[in-house]
Write a structure and sequence with these properties.
By secondary structure, the protein is α/β, with parallel strands linked by helices. It has 2 domains: 192 residues, 3-Layer(aba) Sandwich (Rossmann fold), CATH 3.40.50; 85 residues, no CATH class. The chain has 10 helices and 8 strands. Strands 1-2-4-3-5-6-7-8 form an 8-stranded mixed sheet, with helices on both faces. Helix 2 packs across helix 3 and helix 5 packs across helix 6. The protein starts with a helix and ends with a helix.
């Protein structure tokens, strides 16, 4: 009896212990969304991914080039209710591996990184959303791998660097003369190599404030300017990548390897359902989105009112509804 009692107590204790180890009920609830994260070895480059949500896969690629997926959050989180969201940090950006050889930072290589993540996570056919430079990357992916896409979403982006350079030139020409002269002076002096050793491989604080805080700000936000926006904090990015791709001569001329982006004449080959969005005050002017819309047969164009480049900040409800209606 003593041994039976001891065994019974032991079973009760074990039951209580292992019961405590079981998954909490709340974690299986329909209103709990867990984040999964990891790295994919994409041909020798470690690409960070983060996913959340339920439904068909929607991969999201960020701008910069050289930023990270973080600026999408928390704004795109409502999409997780009906979509399996996969955010990535492009090679050299965010938490992904930074490369010693900067010449490996190309649109073409990043297309292969997107494809490697798709395969590694067994996504099958997926939707792809790209914002700003990410929209350039999404176009390039569609031009090579559109058989792997169900939907393509191009947000505040451009199909031609030569056209984008004309837009940037116009932005500069429309500045107050004092600001334009100040920016011209700093660009003429050279934007790198100034200040203390830790400052020399990036823009000066003065240039970041002038170019991003004064020059770009009216084209970034309109309806809901982010009160936490800080042009100097925006300089926390992958500078070697940025110089390789955008160039070293300032914000109002793209003369890095992104000069190769001239997709206009190839856009008609994209047959996947495509949504094109931008703000009516967008840094990537509406004329660029209108060009893409004209070239991609059957595409849908939405220009958000009172919006700059960050349309999902300026018009969050409208942005989410537009994307959801298109996907579902």
């Amino acid at each position: 009896m003593k041994h039976m009692l001891s065994a019974t107590i032991a079973l009760m204790v074990a039951s209580l212990f292992f019961g405590c180890q079981s998954k909490p009920a709340a974690e299986t609830s329909d209103n709990v969304y867990k984040i999964h994260q990891g790295f994919v070895d994409a041909g020798g480059v470690m690409i960070y991914y983060e996913e959340i949500g339920r439904g068909k896969p929607l991969m999201i690629v960020h701008g910069g080039p050289g930023a990270s997926h973080d600026y999408f959050l928390p704004y795109l989180l409502p999409l997780a209710r009906n979509n399996r969201l996969i955010f990535i940090d492009e090679r050299g950006s965010g938490r992904s591996e930074r490369l010693q050889d900067s010449t490996q930072y190309t649109v073409g290589n990043m297309v292969e990184d997107v494809e490697a993540v798709r395969k590694a996570l067994d996504l099958g056919k997926m939707s792809l959303l790209g914002h700003s430079y990410g929209g350039v990357l999404a176009q390039a992916y569609a031009l090579k791998y559109q058989e792997n896409l169900t939907h393509l979403i191009l947000c505040s982006t451009f199909p031609s660097t030569s056209q984008m350079n004309q837009v940037l030139l116009k932005i500069k020409e429309n500045m107050p003369a004092e600001l334009r002269n100040r920016i011209d002076r700093m660009e003429k002096e050279g934007l790198y190599g100034h200040g203390l050793p830790y400052e020399r491989n990036r823009y000066t604080n003065e240039y970041m404030t002038a170019a991003w805080g004064e020059g770009y700000f009216p084209y970034l936000y309109q309806n809901r300017p982010d009160p936490n926006y800080d042009p100097i904090a925006s300089g926390n990015m992958s500078w070697r990548l940025y110089r390789e791709m955008w160039g070293s001569d300032g914000e109002y001329i793209i003369d890095g390897n992104l000069k190769s982006v001239e997709y206009v004449d190839r856009l008609s080959t994209i047959k996947v359902p495509t949504l094109i969005t931008c703000g009516d005050h967008d840094e990537c002017a509406p004329s660029l989105s209108e060009e893409m819309h004209a070239r991609i047969s059957g595409s849908k164009l939405v220009i958000f009112p009172h919006s700059g480049h960050m349309t999902f900040v300026d018009q969050p409800d409208m942005f989410i509804k537009t994307v959801e209606d298109f996907l579902h």
